[in-house]
Amino acid sequence: MRYMPHTALEREEMLAEIGVGSIDDLFADIPEEARLGDLLDLPLHESEMNVEKNFRTLAAKNLSPYSAPCFLGAGAYQHHVPSVADHVIQRSEFLTSYTPYQPEISQGTLQALFEFQTQVALITGMEVANASMYDGATSCAEAVLMACRVTRRKKAVISGNLHPHYRDVTRTTLQFTEFETEDLSPMLEGDEDFDTRITPDVACVVVQTPDFFGRLKDYTALAEKCHEAGALLVVVVNEVVSLGAVKSPGEMGADIVAGEGQSIGVPLSYGGPYVGLLATRQKYVRQMPGRLCGQTVDQNGQRGFVLTLSTREQHIRREKATSNICTNAGLCSLAFTIHMSLLGETGFAKLAALNHSQAVTLAEMLEKIDGISIVNDSFFNEFTLRLPANAAMIVEKLASKGILAGVPVSRLMPDNPDMANLLLVAATETCSDSDMNAFVTALAEVL
Amino acid sequence: MLNNKGRPTQPVAVDNGEISIETFTGNMGLRLESPLIFEQGMPGRIGVDMADPRPVKVRLGGLERKGPIGLPDLSEPQVLRHFVRLSRQNYAIDAGFYPLGSCTMKHNPRINEKVARLAGLGDLHPLQPTSTVQGALELIDDLAHWLKTITGMPAVAMSPAAGAHGELCGVMAIRAAHEANGESRTRILVPESAHGTNPATAALCGYKVEAVPARKDGRMDLEAFAEKLGPDVAGVMLTNPNTCGLFETDVKKIADMVHEVGGYFYCDGANLNAILGRVRPGDLGVDAMHINLHKTFSTPHGGGGPGAGPVVLSDALAPFAPIPYVVHNDSGFDLVEQAEGQAQKSFGRMKGFHGQMGMFIRALAYMQSHGADGLRQIAENAVLNANYVRVGLNDKLHSPFDGICMHEALFDDSTLKGTGVTTLDLAKAMIDEGYHPMTMYFPLVVHGAMLIEPTESESRQTLDEFIGAMRHLLDRAAAGDTDYFLGAPHYAPRRRLDETAAARNPVLRYTPPAPTEGEETAFSAAS
């Protein structure tokens, strides 16, 4: 077996050194009746060549969004990942290193994390960010727990226009704690009424921009309302490219920003691994979950970086920790940092402008089709279409023509009959003119 | 000695004591520094070329961003060099030995990276119609089959994103099961030696955590356990092999005892590597166990993540598994995405989309490469290597527990007593010898603990050199060369860092310096 160096002779010699007669002697502590005599009922080892073939066979059974016009979004977006980002994260020193608990030999990971935290703080308009969470949805749940700790209150009011996965993960995470959520219903028109719901027991209000339907919202007034009542405003962003074009949550007065960073540097990979972003104000930093990287100096006075404030974390505080999180999204946060470094101020703004112009172009084409309207009064790179027929059925029909038309809202909100004809459509820099033409033509045909 | 071009071919001897080894650049030969990316920008550069946006009627709802963000502008070669320089400040398993207990730092095969990036796998959107991702769903189902077979368990929840997330999944399933029975139990029992994530997870599920002490032989104290058991105990969380590197010999009894009071047995699967193909947790009475794909099945650690933590479940807990999950019917594979119908008892959703697919691909490739025969050999060689290290060091270091260990060898710091050298100092001196330090001060139940997990990837030659280096360092400590240890590491990219200062005055991000008058910095020019 190519991954294991010992020869049979070496195993014998090592057993002799240990002073046992056989490998079985090393497993003598296992209760006899539970010991496996035979091999597991699984295939035997395979060559690298065969393993690769197996996966090529599986891959061939899927429709790659890169070989089809793709307009899917709803919290995961197709963007071009620069080759430098994917190359660097495959360098041995990043790919195969451990969590940077030994800072003297982990400055590469640590400095990159410090840069990641800075980038996330800058784009969200917040003061500090942590070193990542699992994904946007778990980050949202952790933001709510954090708001409950900060305010010492027990209830979170959740916008109905929050991504349903984020709402569900938050509800799941809170279900056995002393905290609870009040979930509002989705609203396609008008603004949600938060004012009457921000009662003295409310720890936070959770909203999203662009919201699940793609609409951009200014939450400045809501932030003020929250603060007057002693509550926090949690703003969720799951298409971070939007922050290159629009007012940041920090400018609106957000106290915590929970985000999904997949759009920058991280491939779609059928839903994971992604990179959860969590940013807040400096004054709340000791209530934050997850790892934090901080700047310091070494014995020689040279600048260096360490994991810090670990007295919040489970390996020190155990049951009193701010979260049970340990492993985070390290390598994905590195990919994010590299991609964002390549973009810079100029590139990030341009990428955002390009995405918006793509979506506007597509929207204008679609609006010309009879019977179709756009629900949104505003959008960034994704909007909601109202079709004259069931959206899931239309998506299936278009898939059979090799077009990934978008996400039927009913897939995420199945119990709401008002949503049956709604289709979420995203257009990023990866869509070509011919992709858009093919989509518009095919959609008009199947209606 | 000069060659025929008149060029010196041998170094000239110099007295290092008399020349300064400080350099103008701060670099030291191949040790290359890179300032923060924010200190390298110049407005107007770009590292990604893209089409110019079409002029369109803006539909941003009046929310256009007004000011700059403050990101630095760089070109592609600058960014590449920056991160390559950073990478070289890292230790990595590809470059050297990681004897890091509880973390299973093993070889990361590159075929796993290759197949994870195949078109049709790495680029799939999670919300494509399931008719267009039959291969992806088959892959998840196949991995689930391997995990169930390896552990001898009937069900597996695939979506948890890491070990601690898997623990949360398992304990939530336990709580959901009790609540479905109309029971509100309040306590979870956890051995003193447990990972910190265990009590933190139990607390997040609303349970009071009670620690169970260990016996003198490093296993959980059954008498103390029996005393704490009662009808209000929801379950026990036990790592097996435990964090002392020992198999819990009474594990079946522990399972029976907790089942007798109506509780469940959660097994922390961090140490699964030791028992692959030798024993199945399902045969030991386990009700739930997470599997760290980034440990046992070598999806790389990546400097702290991402991981994946699927949780195998017993028949009793399976109905409460989180959504989504893959099902198979006559027309192919499908996803159950809502907690209704067959999933009506599910405790809910834990994560966006369907789980860590990128890690699933890597783990399945790893398993297929090993096969049933290779998996068993992993456990055998891992345990062999740990015992080889134990025997190689046990006249120099004291094992708190006698006898054969599983996949990791545990020592305390008693032989360092009186030397002025601590476990931490010894660990930092290991860095100078070219090793990543072992796990230190964990488990908490052993004074100055040193936990060494060599894994099956390491050759006998690597282990011999490691044992030799450790013996050399221990002799040096015993001989009173304390200052050497207190100053270690001497040869790392940084000396010891001031962690106290970092925590006292947290600097968690770069802030541009205020420009002095008349001087325009790159940042202020961008503003």
UniProtKB/TrEMBL annotation, chain A:
Tell me which InterPro entries the record gives: GcvPA, GDC-P_N, GDC_P, PyrdxlP-dep_Trfase, PyrdxlP-dep_Trfase_major, PyrdxlP-dep_Trfase_small
Q: What is this protein called?
A: Probable glycine dehydrogenase (decarboxylating) subunit 1
On whether Ligase is a keyword of this UniProt record, the answer is no
Write out the catalysed reaction: N(6)-[(R)-lipoyl]-L-lysyl-[glycine-cleavage complex H protein] + glycine + H(+) = N(6)-[(R)-S(8)-aminomethyldihydrolipoyl]-L-lysyl-[glycine-cleavage complex H protein] + CO2
Q: Which source organism does the UniProt entry give? A: Sneathiella chungangensis
Domain (Glycine cleavage system P-protein N-terminal) spans 1-440
Which PANTHER family does UniProt cross-reference here?
Answer: GLYCINE CLEAVAGE SYSTEM P-PROTEIN, GLYCINE DEHYDROGENASE (DECARBOXYLATING)
Q: Which gene encodes it?
A: gcvPA
GO BP terms, alphabetized: glycine decarboxylation via glycine cleavage system; nucleoside metabolic process
Pfam family, any one: GDC-P
**NCBIfam families for the chain:** PRK00451.1 (NF001696)
